[in-house]
Each structure stands twice: as structure tokens, then as C-alpha cells.
Automatic annotation (TrEMBL):
It comes from Cognaticolwellia beringensis. Pathway: Amine and polyamine degradation; putrescine degradation; 4-aminobutanoate from putrescine: step 4/4. One of its GO terms (biological process) is polyamine catabolic process. This is gamma-glutamyl-gamma-aminobutyrate hydrolase. Involved in the breakdown of putrescine via hydrolysis of the gamma-glutamyl linkage of gamma-glutamyl-gamma-aminobutyrate.
Length: 270
């Protein structure tokens, strides 16, 4: 029988789900560095990278290790951005317009983990692809190519721009006056960066709109049960988060939510 391993960390721990990236013929599990930085220093938590669990070319399924018992020991979970797209069959569309950009293993990790985190009350923050996953996990649909729709402004970055140019503020968002983001910012408009080709088409169950772009596209969402921290943003708050009030406040608010869970867990086990 497998024994339950309990680790007592001195600080809150946030699990970050990995992408699976192919280098040559081999798969590597990884997370963009700027996300790890913002979780560690912006949310003040130990970042732990969670490998994708579904079986693959060189991997027997890891679900026996990364199960509900494991995830319940985390203080928070973070779903970072990625150039890959959620496979559309997860939201009821069989034909993919971007078949070259999928990451089946990440889908197979993120989507069940989002549902588990919400069910178990584990604080959750999701960025860009992560926000799209949050919507899909809750039964929502995505536009596969926003740029095929005339009603939307250009939400993609200029691929020829420098990194600073690509992550520079690109358009305004209007924050819902009674939402989590407006509350932590103390204002209802903000300028955000924009580096995505997909976007929310229909909203998932149990979610509410936190922010919209000038073209009406949903730019941020949250759980409509205020008892737990569940937030997803389409932009990239992790980019130079210290220099932007909404970004730094968002990571601090996530940090406060996970710290609260950390303290409650420690009190229970005393
Ligand atoms: N592929 C999706 C999601 C976009 C996204 O998450 N981009 C991240 C880019 C790299 C990074 O900064 O981590 C879409 O195009 O909508």
C-alpha cells in the first residue's frame, strides 16, 4: 500500500502546472521563468513545478503520485500562459484550427486539476492559456482564432517586436465594479498587455466576468462563489509585475489567499 507523504514547509507552497515542450525528439516539462519569479516573489510562496501527469512517449501515468491527496497539501495552484492552445474537443468542437499548437499532456493535467482545486477550495490563479483552461474546465467555449472575427481588435503581439514591445500595455480593460480586480486596484479601468490569438466565446459555469476589452472580449474571470480565490486573466501580470499596480496587487492578493490556507492547515494539524 502507498503511504501518504506529508511535507511540512515553512512557507506556503504553490504548484505550477508544466507545459510539455518538444526539443528534437524528446519531451521536456517546463514553465516560463517569469511566472516562477512572480509566484515566488510577488505571491511570496515556494513555487513547485508539477509535471504533466498523463502517460506519454517516455512516461507512465503519474496520476498515482499526483492525486487529490497530493494536491490538497498545496496552498495554491497556478496555471501559467503558454504558446499552446487547449484542444477544442474539450469544449465540444471537433475541428482544430491550430492542430500544430496543442499540448495534450498539459490539457490532461490542467483541466482536472482546475476542477479539483475549485471543489476543494484551493486558491487558484490562471494566466492567458491558464484563464482559457479555467473557462473550458468549467464548461465554457473558446474562439479558436479571434483574428478571423472582424468585431475583435488585434489581440496578438507583434512577432517582430522586441520583448519589451511585445509585453507593453496594448489596450484598456474595464473592470467589473463589484469584482475582485476592481477591489484590489481601487479603480475600474486599466491598461494591459495582449499576447493571445484565442479568447472566451461562452462563459463557463460558476464563473463571472471580471474585465472586458474595448471590443467586448472577456479579459478576466473569477469564481462567482466569493468564498475562495479563483481568478483568471487573459493578459500577463507576471511580466515585470512590480512595475504595475494591478499586477503586483494581484500577486499579493493571491499570496494572501494562499497564506490564509497555509495558516488554517497548520492550525488544524497542531
Ligand atoms: N495560446 C493561447 C494562449 C496564449 C498564451 O498563453 N500566451 C503565452 C505566450 C508566452 C508567455 O508569455 O508565456 C492563445 O494564443 O490564445
Amino acid at each position: 500500500m502507498r503511504r501518504k507523504v506529508k511535507v511540512n514547509f515553512k512557507k506556503p507552497v504553490i504548484g505550477i502546472v508544466c507545459d510539455v515542450i518538444k526539443y528534437g525528439l524528446n519531451g521536456f516539462h517546463g514553465v516560463g521563468e517569469k511566472y516562477i519569479n512572480a509566484i515566488a516573489h510577488g505571491a511570496n510562496a515556494i513555487p513547485i513545478l508539477i509535471p504533466a501527469q498523463p502517460e506519454a512517449q517516455d512516461l507512465e501515468s503519474l496520476s498515482v503520485f499526483f492525486d487529490a491527496d497530493f494536491f490538497e497539501q498545496l496552498d495554491g495552484v497556478f496555471f501559467p500562459g503558454s504558446p499552446s492552445n487547449v484542444e477544442p474537443h474539450h469544449y465540444g468542437t471537433e475541428t482544430s484550427k491550430t492542430p500544430e499548437s496543442h499540448d495534450k499532456q498539459r490539457d490532461g493535467s490542467s483541466l482536472p486539476l482546475i476542477k479539483l482545486a475549485i471543489e476543494k477550495g484551493i486558491p487558484l490563479l490562471a494566466v492567458c492559456r491558464g484563464m482559457q483552461e479555467l473557462n473550458v474546465a468549467m464548461g465554457g467555449e473558446l474562439h479558436q482564432c479571434l483574428f478571423h472575427h472582424e468585431e475583435f481588435i488585434e489581440h496578438r503581439e507583434n512577432k517582430n517586436g522586441t520583448r519589451d514591445e511585445q509585453y507593453a500595455p496594448a489596450h484598456d480593460v474595464t473592470l467589473s465594479p463589484d469584482g475582485v480586480l476592481a477591489n484590489i486596484l481601487g479603480a475600474t479601468t486599466h491598461k494591459v498587455n495582449s499576447l493571445h490569438g484565442q479568447g472566451i466565446k461562452t462563459l463557463g459555469n460558476g464563473l463571472k466576468v471580471e474585465a472586458t476589452a474595448p471590443d467586448g472580449l472577456v479579459e478576466a474571470i473569477s469564481g462567482n462563489d466569493n468564498s475562495n480565490f479563483v481568478v483568471g486573466v487573459q493578459w500577463h501580470p507576471e511580466w515585470q509585475y512590480q512595475q504595475d499596480k494591478l499586477s503586483s496587487s494581484l500577486f499579493s492578493a493571491f499570496g494572501e489567499a494562499i497564506n490564509q490556507r497555509f495558516k488554517e492547515k497548520n492550525n488544524k494539524s497542531m
